[in-house]
Design goal:
Blueprint lengths: L1 H32 L1 E6 L9 H13 L4 E6 L15 E4 L11 H12 L3 E5 L12 H4 L3 E2 L10 E7 L13 E5 L5 E2 L5 E7 L6 E10 L2 E6 L5 H5 L1 H14 L8 E7 L11 H14 L6 E7 H6 L9 E5 L11 H12 L3 E5 L9 H10 L2 E2 L13 E4 L13 E2 L9 E2 L6 E9 L5 E10 L5 E5 L11 H14 L15
Parallel strand pairs: 1-2, 1-3, 3-4, 4-11, 12-13, 12-14, 14-15, 15-22
Antiparallel strand pairs: 5-8, 6-7, 6-9, 9-10, 10-11, 16-19, 17-18, 17-20, 20-21, 21-22
Length: about 500
């Protein structure tokens, strides 16, 4: 009996040890890799359409795939012990003419942040707890109804004032359209990250600040009046980075990838540019080892109607026909891309898109931007089935890629500048079959403007994107040209 009792005690103690151990491991793993974010909304001033802004804010934060975002439309949820399940609580409400959550919510919030979790206060959340004196210290700065609330809604400049803080070290000063709050008061020491000058009284006011509270972190920004304000790319970037920092994660700079799909010009299964571009986007969006990107897909017509779609892009991916059917044959698009290239934006051209419009200016700039191009009357394009070999295995574009064989219209005899030391061959093959020579099928270039280019001559058949190393190479190249670190084993993607 004594032996059995001892075994039971040991079994219980061992089980308790395991539960504590795995709970700590789970907590550590989550803290290092992901964070649960709770957006609390549901009440606000009539001028604040929280029904519209809350889901947009959730999408903005969720663009960082490490952040798992949930929205609750009842501030009284703060009284629930369930808020302990979250790493960051976002206050996106203000108790306008209604009683707010009581003491239990206040205790929960303080306990949460003091214990090491995060708090993110956006816009009129600075007035969420008007009758809680401690909120002045807890939020860093709070709404004072005795002060002038804000400048008239309109455009103003936000200046980044702390380039060393993790939240703002990779963000440039920017313009936005919003309410410039002039009503915040408080005396707690804070790290002011960004300011804006009022057009009314000519004074500087904090637009983002951060501080530690106990073991936790608080990020606070009075920006974010409406959907337009929250969706403004630099504001969205600021919010994402601030939320990640509050969660204890290293902020990641989001990179914008613009995919341009040309019109289909062949039979089904060939030159399916839209389907191919959508596949690239889906692979990157769903990859478990890629983060820090946002991407949009545009067709030629959309681009011709609004070239500003390309603004703020970090890399541009073109999968289209070439020559007069190339998107760059449109002069407005060409000039926009030329300006972006001079700023170091990346460029990826797939299959026929490596054939620029047939004029000296386009061909010359293609040599600069991408490193090489398909030249009519010089380059070759017969259907072939070579053994493709990755010849630069240490280059990030080649990470995780193995040699393969595939039937495709791999162009060869690509026109490169003679002696261009910038060119790095990525994929080669012995072509043509009758008189084989080592030909470059994919290549990379680092430009003088600090931008990056990549060209790949395959991609005639849509089915070939099922070939993993071929697909992985292009996905790796998209990240590399956007200056996003390529995973050690390359982009993980599954195509069904």
């Amino acid at each position: 009996m004594r032996f059995a009792f001892r075994n039971i005690v040991l079994f219980v103690l061992f089980g308790l040890f395991l539960s504590i151990f795995f709970a700590q491991v789970s907590k550590a793993t989550q803290k290092e890799g992901t964070a649960n974010v709770l957006i609390v909304t549901g009440i606000d001033h009539p001028a604040h359409k929280w029904q519209q802004t809350a889901p947009v804010l959730a999408n903005v934060l969720g663009a960082d795939k490490r952040l798992s975002v949930k929205v609750v439309e009842d501030p009284f949820f703060l009284e629930s012990p369930q808020i302990r399940d979250y790493d960051v609580v976002v206050l996106h409400y203000m108790n306008w003419e209604k009683p707010g959550p009581g003491q239990k919510a206040r205790d929960n919030l303080q306990e949460l942040v003091e214990g090491g979790k995060g708090l993110f206060i956006i816009h009129f959340g600075c007035g969420a707890f008007q009758d809680w004196p401690e909120f002045r210290d807890f939020a860093g700065r709070v709404w004072d109804p005795e002060k002038r609330p804000h400048d008239p809604y309109g455009k103003f400049r936000v200046e980044i004032t702390d380039i060393s803080h993790p939240v703002t070290k990779e963000i440039q000063s920017f313009n936005t359209t919003d309410e410039l709050y002039t009503c915040l008061v408080g005396d707690r020491q804070i790290d002011v990250l960004a300011t804006a000058r009022s057009k009314v009284d000519k004074k500087e006011y904090p637009m983002a600040f951060a501080f530690n509270y106990g073991k936790g972190r608080v990020f606070h920004s009075p920006l974010g009046h409406d959907v337009k304000a929250i969706s403004n790319r630099p504001v969205a970037e600021l919010f994402r980075r601030g939320c990640a920092w509050a969660a204890g994660l290293e902020p990641v700079q989001q990179k914008k990838i613009v995919f341009i799909a040309g019109k289909s010009s062949h039979v089904q299964g060939e030159h399916e540019h839209k389907e191919g571009i959508r596949l690239f986007k889906k692979c990157l969006d769903n990859s478990h080892n890629v983060t820090g990107i946002e991407s949009i897909v545009v067709c030629e017509q959309q681009l011709f109607e609004d070239v500003s779609i390309l603004d703020d892009s970090d890399t541009i991916v073109i999968y289209s026909d070439g020559w007069k059917a190339h998107p760059l044959a449109n002069m407005e698009v060409f000039e926009k891309v030329r300006k972006l290239m001079s700023k170091g934006v990346g460029l990826v051209c797939v299959h026929f898109a490596v054939a620029p419009p047939k004029n000296e200016k386009s061909e010359s700039l293609f040599l600069e931007w991408v490193g090489g191009y398909y030249k009519d009357g010089y380059s070759q394009n017969p259907m072939n089935e070579p053994d493709a070999e990755f010849v630069s295995p240490k280059h990030p574009i080649s990470y995780g890629c193995k040699n393969f064989t595939a039937k495709d219209e791999f162009y060869y005899r690509i026109k490169f500048r003679e002696g261009d030391s910038r060119i790095v061959p990525i994929l080669t093959a012995m072509l043509p079959k009758e008189n084989p020579k080592r030909e470059v099928l994919a290549w990379a270039v680092e430009r003088r403007d600090r931008g990056r280019g990549f060209g790949f001559t395959g991609g005639h058949f849509h089915r070939n994107w099922q070939v993993e190393p071929l697909r992985k190479m292009v996905l790796n190249a998209i990240l590399w040209t956007a200056k996003v670190p390529v995973p050690e084993k390359g982009v993980h993607s599954i195509v069904k």
